[in-house]
Amino acid sequence: MRIYRIAAIPGDGIGTEVVAAGVEALTTCAKRDGGFALAVDHFDWGSERYKKTGAFMPENGRDLIKNHDAILFGSAGAPDVPDHVTLWGLRLAICQPFDQYANVRPTRILPGIVSPLRNVSGPELDWVIVRENSEGEYAGVGGRAHRGLPEEVATDVSIFTRAGVTRVMRFAFALARSRPRKLLTVVTKSNAQRHGMVMWDEIAAEVAAEFPDVMCDKMLVDAMTMRMTLKPQSLDTIVATNLHADILSDLAAALAGSLGIAPTANLNPERNFPSMFEPIHGSAFDIVGKGIANPIGTFWSGVMMLEHLGEPGAAARLMRAIERVTADTSLHTPDLGGNARTADVTRAVCETLAGDNQA
Ligand code: ATP
């Protein structure tokens, strides 16, 4: 029997609720499959730890998880800790050293879920956004001087490297090639940002020559928001910078019905380090402890984890269970307009998995 070591890092807020649900669904999925098992180690890293000890994770934290097969992450963020401190203290402190440079965000309208876009249903919105996840606007380069004085100055410098852009571009083209439509849209802002973004365009054209069977088009990020909203059918795979794709994927999640459904994978495609899977939503402190967090985004992230681990059968089975459950509106949590609770949705997914007789 194959045994995968999973590091579960629930983090803050509803992260603890949805990761517990995710571990339950993944464990049920493994049992139903019979060919593999998950050995899950839990790490209590997050804002509470930061407030007590001054650090989100122990100094040797990355060593503790670097040999795991995958990481299941919840969310990081607390009302009384500045967002940038949390982000750099935990999520980016894992993503960047583990070189998880390809952030993959699938978006679909699942059965039973209504998009805020009029007349748009399942097949018309089926995207995967690839976000450059290691440099760009979130490279962390910049600084502040003359703090508090009238002449105070602050800079955030975007770093685009040929190596960084080329590798994520190749990843996006290969992903587009693996999907039926073989269509990639490269998003930049190369009219206004005339250095890094123009290099993106040039590298996109170079890599396109390696993938002659993939159709490729170019969009400016502002125009892209309109195309996503007005012509969702015209898009399939999308690649964009760290900042642009961050924003576009929140729009994508909203168009697909709820932030609570959207999954993401932070991949180190070379597998030198573990990859990390997480729902795209944050800590959602307005609903924490109420038992109503939607766990579907975490379950779908679990599907991506199983695909990455090389368990496509189990991944497909978990996705089928998710879709059967979302199709039943009595199992919708309040973010989707229903009354169901996290535990109801989790139980329903686990029961559906157990009763799935498909090979
Ligand atoms: P962050 O800055 O950490 O990304 P945020 O404040 O931008 O967080 P979220 O914490 O994701 O955003 O919450 C935005 C809104 O969406 C909140 O009203 C929250 O309750 C809701 N929400 C987010 N995730 C879920 C979920 N899984 N289930 C139900 N509602 C959710």
Which terms would index this structure?
359 residues, alpha/beta, Isopropylmalate Dehydrogenase, 2 domains, ten-stranded mixed β-sheet, two-stranded antiparallel ribbon, binds adenosine-5'-triphosphate
How would you describe this protein?
- There is one protein chain.
- The protein is α/β, with parallel strands linked by helices and 359 residues long.
- The chain folds into two domains: 1-100 and 263-359, 3-Layer(aba) Sandwich (Isopropylmalate Dehydrogenase), CATH 3.40.718; 115-256, Isopropylmalate Dehydrogenase, CATH 3.40.718.10.
- 40% of the residues lie in helices and 22% in strands.
- The protein is built from eleven helices and twelve strands.
- Strand 1 (2-11), helix 1 and strand 2 form a beta-alpha-beta unit.
- The chain is globular and about 60 Å long.
- The mean pLDDT is 95.
- Adenosine-5'-triphosphate binds next to loops.
Overall mean pLDDT stands at 95
Helix content: 25-40%
Tally the beta strands. 12
Which superfamily, in CATH terms, is the homologous superfamily of the largest domain?
Answer: Isopropylmalate Dehydrogenase
Q: Which stretches are poorly predicted, pLDDT < 50 over at least 5 residues?
A: none
Number of domains: 2
Which fold name is given in CATH as the topology of the largest domain? Isopropylmalate Dehydrogenase
Which ions and ligands are bound to the chains? Answer: adenosine-5'-triphosphate
Rg, alpha carbons: 20 Å
Backbone structural class: alpha/beta
CATH architectural category of the largest domain: 3-Layer(aba) Sandwich
Query: Tally the helices: what do you get?
Result: 11
Give the strand line-up of the largest sheet.
2-1-3-12-11-4-5-10-8-9
Distance between the termini: 18 Å
* Largest sheet composition: 10 strands, mixed
Gross morphology is globular
CATH class of the largest domain: Alpha Beta
